[in-house]
Amino acid sequence: MYLIYPIVFISAFLLFQIELIIGKIFLPNYGGSYFVWGACIVFFQAALFFGYAFSHFVIRWLGIAKYRILHIAIIFFPFLFFPGKTLPLMYSLTDLPIVVDVFIKLLVTIGPVFIVLSTIGIVSQSWVANSNLPQKNNPYVLFGISNFGSFLALMTYPFLFENYYDLSVQVNIWRISYCILAVLQLIAFAVIKLEEAVVEKERPFTISKRVIVEWCLYSAASVILFLAVTNVLVLEIAPMPFLWIMPLAIYLLSFVLNFKEKPFFPKFIDKYAYLNIGFGVLFYFVVSAKAFPVLIVGVSSLVFLFFICMTCQSRLYLSRPKDTRELTYFYLIMSFSGFLGGLFATWIVPVFANNHLEFLIGLFMLCLAINISKKDYSVPFGVLVWVFVLALLLYSGRIFLLKFHYWGILLLLVVVWVIFFSLKKRAFGLSIALFILVILANNIEMNWLKGNCIYQMRNYYGIIKVLDIGKVRFMLNGKTIHGAQALDAKGRQVPIAYYNPASPVVKLMLSVKELKRIGIIGLGTGSLSVYTNKDQYLDFFELDKDIIDVAKKYFVFLNIAQGKIKYYVGDARKSLESLDRKGYNLIVVDAFSGDSIPTHLLTKEGINVFRDHLGEKGIIVFHATNQYINVVDPLVSTAFSLGAKVLYKNNVDVTTARFFSEWVAVTWEDEAAKQLSETFKWEELDQNNFNDIRVWTDNYTNILPHLDTDKILKSVTSIKMFPKPAYIK
Length: 729
Fold this sequence. Notes:
Elements: H1 4-26, H2 35-62, H3 64-76, H4 98-109, H5 111-129, H6 141-164, H7 167-191, H8 209-236, H9 241-259, H10 267-271, H11 273-288, H12 294-318, H13 327-352, H14 357-374, H15 381-395, H16 397-404, H17 406-422, H18 427-448, E1 452-459, E2 462-469, E3 472-477, E4 480-486, H19 504-511, E5 517-521, E6 537-542, H20 545-554, H21 557-560, E7 564-569, H22 572-577, E8 584-589, H23 604-612, E9 614-623, H24 632-641, E10 645-653, E11 658-667, H25 670-678, E12 683-684, H26 709-717
Helix pairs in contact: 1-2, 1-5, 1-6, 1-7, 2-3, 2-4, 2-5, 2-13, 3-5, 3-7, 6-9, 8-9, 8-12, 8-13, 8-14, 9-12, 11-12, 11-14, 11-17, 11-18, 14-18, 15-17, 15-18, 16-17
C-alpha cells in the first residue's frame, strides 16, 4: 500500500501541474483572455471523464487482472507524444473558433498523457479493492490522497515553480517526474498481488436512479460554482495562475477532507448549508454592484466556496457505493457531471446570459440535490410568501446600499439569514426561491447598479457595461473603466478620464507634427481618435470585436474623428506579427490599463514586435496604470534589457480630480528621448535602479512579486461605513 500512495499522489500532482503550465503557455496566444483558462478546464474535465470511462468499461470487460497488464502499456504510450517530445512555448493561431482551436491544441499536445494520468487514480483504487491489502474495504481513501496531490500541485506552482523556473525548465522537470512515475508503476505491477482474477461482469445493478441524480447534481453544482467564483476573481483582478488556482484548490481541498480515512466535516457546515446558500445569493448581487474592495470580495468568495464545496463533497462521500465493485461507476458519473457543469459554466452561459448567471444556477442545482435527498416536494403557502419577500427585498437592495452602504449590506444579510432559515425545513421551497432568482437575476442586478445601465453584454472576454452616472457615461469591463465621455452636447466631444486633453500621451499627439502614423493597442471608447487630424493614419488593435460596436454606438469619439482609422481584430501582438512593417511614429499600448494584464505584451519578445513596427524617431507609450499590481517595474526592467531609453510620467484628470494614470515611454532614439524629457517633462529613468528586477520573457512572467499589498490592505482599512455614492459630489 505504501507504494500505491506515492503513485497516486505523483500522478495527481503531475495531472494538475500540467494544467497550469499549458494554461500559461496558451494564454498569450489569445490575448490574455481568462476564457483560455475556462476552455482549458473544460478540456481537462473532458479528458478526465474519458480516462474514467475507459477505465470503467475496460475493467468491467477484461477484469482488473488483465487490465493491469494493459495499463502498463498505456503508461508508456505518451512517450510517443509529450513527454517523449517537448512542448513549444508559443503556438500559431488558426482561423478556427477559439474553443475549437484550444481543444485541438490541447488534444495533440498534452491530451494523451493527461488521459493516461487520469486513469491512474481509479485503477489504483480498483487494484486495492481486489488485493489482499488491509485497505481493500475502503479504497476511497486513495481519492483523498489523489486530491491532496492535486491540491499541493496548485499551491506550489505560483510560489515555487512559476516564481523560480522558466517555462522550459518547468516542462523538463515535469517530464523527468513522469519518467519516475512510470518506473514506480512497473514496480507496483510486480509487487501487488490480486486476490481475484477478474471482477464479475454481470451482477445486479444496486444503485438507485435517485442516488445517481444526486451524484450528478452535487458534482455539477460544485464545478459550476468553483468556475463562477474563478470568473469573478479573474475579471475583478487579473487572469494569472495564482488566481486561477485558488478556487480550484478549495474545490480539491474539499475532496481531500471528505475522502480521507477519517473524513473531516464539521457538523455546523451541513447544519447551516441553507444559510450559506442565502449568503451566496446576497454576495452575488453585492459583487455585481461593485460595492466592496477586491480583498473583501476575494476572501468572501473563497470562504463561501469552501463551505459550499464541503457540503457537496460530504454528501457525495456519504452516498458512495458500499460495494467496491461499483467504485468505477461512481467516479464515471462524477466526472461526467463535472464535465457537463464545466461546459455549461464556461461555454454555454456566456452565449445566453449577460452576467455571471452560472453562480445562481449552481446554487439552484445544489438546492435541488438537497431537495431530492430529503424527498420533500411540498410547497405550503407560507413558503411562497417567504419567496416573494426575498425577491422584493433583493429588488430594493440598492436603497439599502446607497443610503447605508456597508451597514445596509449587514442589514440585508441579517434579513436574508432570517428568510433562508425559515425555508430550511422546506427544501423544495428553497429550490423554488433559487429558480425564481435565476429568472429575475438580471432585473435585480440592474437595480443594484449605481447609475443607469443602458447596455450590458457578456462574451468570452468578459462583461461589458455602458453606464450613465450623473452627467458622465462610462464603459466598464468588470471594475475596469475603459473610457468615459460627458453627456452634455458640448462637453461630450472632449474625452475625459485617462485621455483628457492634459494627458501625457494626448499632449504628444497634439504637439508633435511628425506623428503621421499611429498604432493604438486597446480601443476602449476610442477616445484618442478625437485628437487626430485628416493627415494622420490611426490603426486600432482590439482583441474583442464587440468593443468596436459598443464604442461606435454609445460613444461619439470614433464618429467625429478626422483621422483615417483602421481596425484590426484579434490579439495585437499576433496581428502585428502578421503585418508588413508599419513604420509607426507612435504606438500606444493600453491593453492593460485595468486590473487584467496580458503579460505577453510586456515581455522582451512582445516589446520587440512593437519595435519592429516603429518608424524614425518612433516611441512606444505604455499605459501602465493598475490598482493593485506594479506593472511599471517589470516593464521598465524589460525595456532596459533591450537597450532602450525609458521615461516615466504620471497624471491626474484635472476635470474630475480622479483617474490617476501612469505612463512609460520606450524609445531607441536619442532625439525622441530628449524631446520627451525637455519639452514634455517626462522623467528619464536610471537603469541601475531596476537591475534587481527580473526581466520578463515569453519563457518567464510572474505577477505575484509585483502585487502591491499596501494598496490592497488600504482598500479595506479605508472603508467608510457611510460614504456618498460615486456620482454625488
